[in-house]
């Protein structure tokens, strides 16, 4: 991921529930009380980049500042829904950058089962995306609900598949080239 | 994006490459031998067939100076046979019909029949086997190899479409051919889409996905989607892959690969 990748920047801004393990002097600004201390045991949502930095003691083995939890987008409830049927879950409502987020989370947590569920989800949904991308009517018809629930990675996938199918159709003379650029 | 062009090559570029394929024509006019960058083009003498690059053949066809003889796979019979293989044959339910055999390789159907290699020789006398795109997969063969089933060459879709466009009057039953090409394309596109299930093998180290028999245009069309899926799966599975590598490194450290380690040590001494 590039330094200037806007998707990666937005992913870093997503909130992660954290619990402070120690009392931190002067960090009350995070709670909206500038100048105060943050008490041990305070729970709050911090952006991914900040939570990652504060929890760094976990990996070094020293006492850590905050304890990270799984974000609501990757909660048990969502994973169970994905296990049941990946196609009906609105990933975009969970997190706009669902896969990028889970990728970062998986770096922090060791979750063998989550990897498997997510891989299966991605595969199942990718096949569905390919169907919609090759069939322009699907966008207007019953596919709207599904396509609205695509996360950013899947939207890019849809666009790539749709564009290449369209270019091939234009080449074969089945479709007219429009003046519109993507 | 800083780089506006998508990865891979566009359909017009693919069909440009396909124009390098050699086809057989029946000239109607005499033409002296042409000296082109790619080598000499044989002189055209009307009753005699000649083999030309597709782009030149199409040019002559448009000027009504030649007729193009369709390659053997572009007949309705061959195409419907291939379509049968793609749809009915249980070995190819999820695979593509086999490509034409390469020279120096036994046919896919009967591996025991021995090679049908016919080596060619350089001016220095060196032996070599031609490889695509210099294989005459779209020319008309005088002798059909016994029992050799028809097969789609690498540039089947491009050559087929271009010939239908420019030389439909030279084809046998062009409407039927057009319909069969379209059907073949649909069947094979569906197979590419089904292949997503197999793609996680490509995302892990050492895995691979068989694309034997997939044509140039199909590869070009599927490239963006397939690489996107593989990339996504790779990212999701990155932590699992990391764990696997660590485990492997541990095994090596614990003496799991004694032999190789000794070799390394020996090398170090020199």
Automatic annotation (TrEMBL), chain A:
Question: How is this protein named in the record?
Answer: DNA replication complex GINS protein PSF3
Which keywords does this Swiss-Prot/TrEMBL entry list?
DNA replication, Nucleus
The record's section on Pfam families has:
PSF3_N, Sld5
Q: Which SUPFAM superfamilies match?
A: GINS helical bundle-like, PriA/YqbF domain
Question: Which biological process, per GO, is one annotated for this protein?
Answer: mitotic DNA replication initiation
Oligomeric form and interacting partners: Component of the GINS complex.
Looking at the record's lineage, which domain of life comes first? Eukaryota
Cell compartment(s), UniProt: Nucleus
User: InterPro entries per the record?
Assistant: GINS_A, GINS_bundle-like_dom_sf, GINS_Psf3, GINS_Psf3_sf, PSF3_N
Cite the PANTHER family for this sequence.
DNA REPLICATION COMPLEX GINS PROTEIN PSF3
Residues covered by the GINS subunit domain: 74-172
Whose protein is this, by species?
Aspergillus nanangensis
The UniProt similarity line reads: Belongs to the GINS3/PSF3 family.
UniProtKB/TrEMBL annotation, chain B:
* Acidic residues composition-biased segments: 260-270
The domain of life for this entry's organism is Eukaryota
* Region spans: Disordered: 239-270
State the Pfam families in the record.
Answer: PSF2_N (PF25005), Sld5 (PF05916)
The record ties this protein, via InterPro entries, to: GINS_A (IPR021151), GINS_bundle-like_dom_sf (IPR036224), GINS_Psf2 (IPR007257), PSF2_N (IPR056784)
Query: Cellular component terms, GO, for this chain's entry?
Result: GINS complex
Annotated GO biological process: chromosome segregation; DNA replication; double-strand break repair via break-induced replication
The chain positions of domain DNA replication complex GINS protein PSF2 N-terminal read 10-69
Q: Report if keyword Nucleus is assigned.
A: yes
User: Where would I find the GINS subunit domain in this sequence?
Assistant: 146-236
State the function annotated in the UniProt record: The GINS complex plays an essential role in the initiation of DNA replication. Has a role in chromosome segregation.
Q: How does it assemble?
A: Component of the GINS complex which is a heterotetramer of SLD5, PSF1, PSF2 and PSF3.
Q: What is this protein called?
A: DNA replication complex GINS protein PSF2
